[in-house]
Amino acid sequence: MVGSINPVVVVPVHEAKTDELSETSLRHLTRYLGNYRLVLAKPQRLDWSVPGLDDEVFPNESFGTLLRYNQFQLLPEFYERFSQHSHILIYHLDALVFRDELTQWCETDYDYIGASWYPDLIRQYTGNPWPFAPVGCGNGGFSLRRVSAFLRHLKTRKSTLRHAGDRLLEGNFDAASRLWRYRKHLTPSDYEEHGMLNEDVYWGVFAPLIDSSFRVATPEVGNRFSFEYDPNFLLKISGGHMPFGCHAWYRFEDARQFWTPHLLAADDPVTSGMTRPARG
């Protein structure tokens, strides 16, 4: 078991990312977190690498569609690949990091940290409802995961119905009700017919309902860690405190306008010539 803080930053990709926006995300990664081990997690078929990042190759079927990726992030095999590390920072190539606070975040008691989810903001930005929790925490695109806690959870998990029954016997009627309601979206054999919840919804909302010892950060902590939807609003309710990082920085126009003044220039003297991906 890992006894000290030893994080790894994992960048999952299913195809080559050679556009300027992805290169900006890589520039921030190597500039601020370049002293940690950086890994490109990719399928076997992808002949593409990034200077400064180690390649970790996984089966092709682990990538390619959102469903495959979500399933992959719920398999112990993914986390076992990094079992020599204490934590994984998932860093999608629409994320940014603004300073090195990684060790400090790893020293917290939380098993999972990501940007907070506010139902009204999600509906406003995506048009989709958010029925899973009044307020949630745990967007996966820029998220910190304690490897030992994730492996313990995945290796001891029982059927969703068993966990719902356990919560009912404990008198936790809210947890039992939510697990029962979403049981078909949490059961691999039902994914094809009923659909699968995104893996970050599983970790941020349902993992602590299944196992109360699995510790997810509060929304207030999530706001210090990362922003996603409506960064202007999040900055205001966070007392003007800029987060450690963010996700989906260019996906929405207001987010792009908010983050643009904080972007490293392409000719940044520290990262110039370091982050341009190698073409396979």
In CATH, what is the class?
A: Alpha Beta
Given the structure, what is the number of helices?
A: 13
N-to-C series of helices and strands: EHEEHHEEHEEHEEHHHHHHEHEH
Q: What is the CA–CA distance across the termini?
A: 36 Å
Please give the oligomerization state of what you see: single chain
| Spatial shape | globular
Percent of residues in beta strands = 5-15%
CATH 2nd-level architecture = Alpha-Beta Complex
- SSE-based structural type: alpha/beta
Radius of gyration: 19 Å
| Overall pLDDT confidence | 91
Task: List the domain count as a whole number.
Answer: 1
- Count of DSSP strands: 11
**Biggest pleated-sheet summary:** 6 strands, mixed
Which regions contain 5 or more consecutive residues with pLDDT less than 50?
A: 274-280
Short description:
With 280 residues, the chain is an alpha/beta fold.
Structural write-up:
With 280 residues, the chain is of the alpha/beta class. The chain has one domain (8-157, 215-262): Spore Coat Polysaccharide Biosynthesis Protein SpsA, Chain A. The protein has 13 helices and 11 strands. The chain has helices spanning 20-33, 66-72, 76-80, 102-106, 119-126, 147-156, 160-170, 173-181, 191-194, 199-210, 219-225, 231-237, 253-259, and strands spanning 8-12, 37-43, 54-58, 87-91, 95-97, 112-113, 116-117, 136-137, 142-146, 226-227, 245-247. The strands form 3 sheets. It has a 6-stranded mixed β-sheet with strand order 3-2-1-4-9-6. The protein has a 3-stranded mixed β-sheet with strand order 5-11-10. A two-stranded antiparallel sheet has the order 7-8. Helix 7 (160-170) runs antiparallel to helix 8 (173-181). The chain is globular and about 60 Å long. The two termini are 36 Å apart. The model is unreliable at 274-280 (pLDDT under 50).
